[in-house]
Amino acid sequence: MALHLLIGLCVTLFVYPLRSPLQRQRIRQRWSSRLLAIVGLRLEHEGERVQPGCLLVANHVSWLDIFVVNALAPAAFVSKAEVRNWPLIGVLAARNETVFLMRGSRGHARIINAEVGAILDAGRNVALFPEGTTTDGSHVLHFHAALLQPAVESGHSVQPVAISYLDAQGRHSLAPAYAGDTSLIECLMAIVGSRALIASVSVGSPLPTCNGLHRKEVARQARETIVAHVSRHAGQVERHH
Fold first, then answer.
1. Where residue 180 falls among pLDDT bands split at 50, 70, 90?
2. Parallel, antiparallel, or unpaired for β 125-128 and 75-80?
3. What is the pTM for the complete model shown?
């Protein structure tokens, strides 16, 4: 995995500048798929296809979520500004169209809205986690509707993406959960120590934002779609226990 990360860094520094946006997306998709394979994770997709030019909103369970989404449909991600300063990860994020959000700054939020809108206008996808934090994957927290404003302002649809991590028997797995006091190393060891993990991804229908709906209503609809998928798999844990 360390070698794969190093390869990713070299590609973003030396190969990306010579490639078109579409070629960079394909490279990112292959690289993300390979990373999932390295940690023993299989991706399963159900529901709709990801539509170009949509704001993708997903529940947040693990650091793996970004690579799961990119393996399915490469997207620029909205992330907190602090990530830019993280060793290695910050460089990889910055070179892969990450939009860094400075929380609590209205002026910066307007800049971010315009930046996200420009990416969507170009027919590319942007993804974010409107819960604002991670959970153990058994439930979905409140969605911060303000994060959906870029799609509302630019008139692009919001497409819900539900992520559940399952074991070989199809039961909800806590191994990938990067929440609470769990460190990154502990989370990684739990993942590689598990057998035949599955990332079950359900993509909902795009929700239009150009019909006068308030962002809070769009956030509510997106969350309900994601909750339906997550609850179905979380309930399987209770039955097996």
1. confident
2. parallel
3. 0.92
